[in-house]
Each structure stands twice: as C-alpha cells, then as structure tokens.
Input
Amino acid sequence: MRNKYNEQLEKLNNMLVEMGAVIETAIATVVQALKEQDIEVAKKVIALEKEVDLKEKEIEALCLKLLLLQQPMARDLRLISAALKMITDMERIGDQAADIAELAIFLASAPYIKDLEHIPQMAEATVKMVSSSIDAFVKKDLELAKSVILYDDVVDELFEVIKHELVDLIRSDSKNGEQAMDFLMIAKYFERIGDHAENIAEWVVFSMTGKHKEIVDSDNIEIEGL
Output
C-alpha cells in the first residue's frame, strides 16, 4: 500500500513539473510574440492557457484522491495541501500570460514607441522563479524556495524602471500615451506573475515547515538570491 502511495506522490511531482514547463513555455512564447509583433505566436499562448487549465484539473483530482483514499500523515498532508495551493497560482500565471498575448495581438499592428528591454528581463526573472519554486518542491529544498521569495524584488524593481520610462515617454510626447499604457499593463501582468511565483515558493516552504507567511513574518527570512 505504501509503495503505491509513494508512486502516486512521485506522479504528483512529475505532473507539477509538467505544468510548470507549460507555464514557462507560455511566458517565453508571449515574449517572442511581443518582440516579433507576431499574432500567430501570440495565439499559441492563448492555446497553452487551455493546456494549463487541463493540467490543473488533473493535479487537483490526484490530490483529492490522495487525501480521500490514503489518509496521509501530517507531513504528506502538508505536501498535498501545498500542491493544491500551488496549482491555483500556476493556473493564474497561465491566465496572465494569455492576457499579455491578447495585448500583444492588439499591439502587433503599429511600430513600438521604444525597444523592448526590461519586459523580456521581467519575463526571464519570472520563469526562473517558477522553475526554481517547483524544483524546490520536488527536491524538498527549503533554501531554494526561500531564495525565490526574495528574488521577487528583482521583478518589482524592473516594473518600477519600466513605469518611470513610460511616464517619461508620455511627458515627451502625449501621442505615446495609449501604447505606453498598454506596455504598463503588460509590465503589471509580469509583476503579478512574479507575485504568483513567490506564492508558489511560500507554499513550498509551508509543505516542509508547516509555516506560511500569514503566520510567520516573512521579514525573518534571510537567504541569498537565486
């Protein structure tokens, strides 16, 4: 019985990795769509959102099966509960990548008011956070999970840089206003993706320690970056 249970936990790990890989692909693809102003590439991201939704349902079903049929002990209960929380944030990341893709389609028909520089950097940082947080869950690596939480500051700082650049562009020429607001919205979506990746890492910490930021002051976390 325990061997079967362990096999199902391993399956859960694998499914989370697969879902994370789809999310990472969605983020990378939407950046490609933005860079190349390619509508067809943007549409691929919208299709990937449906795949993310499907994987969320499959993982949720497995978690509920483990909870109802296996009567897990405290540590495993935390792990399964954390996985259920993680997939909610992962699904929302998929939604936000699709939202960015919709804006990419809208922006594809006109020249950009500036070269894309910091938005791809934000995307790269969020992919690193998602990948590392899931890796921390699978490997039960507490230090890696904590480093992801701190790394969200990188995404937040890039958002502030983009916001100030766009404000300057609007001040220099009011005709830049509409597109600048679209790019600000894109940057905000990436900032939210970073927040969801941070949430994932916090649930990884919970799965190993039983402590979550709602209970423990996260300012007490001290760990080097990724």
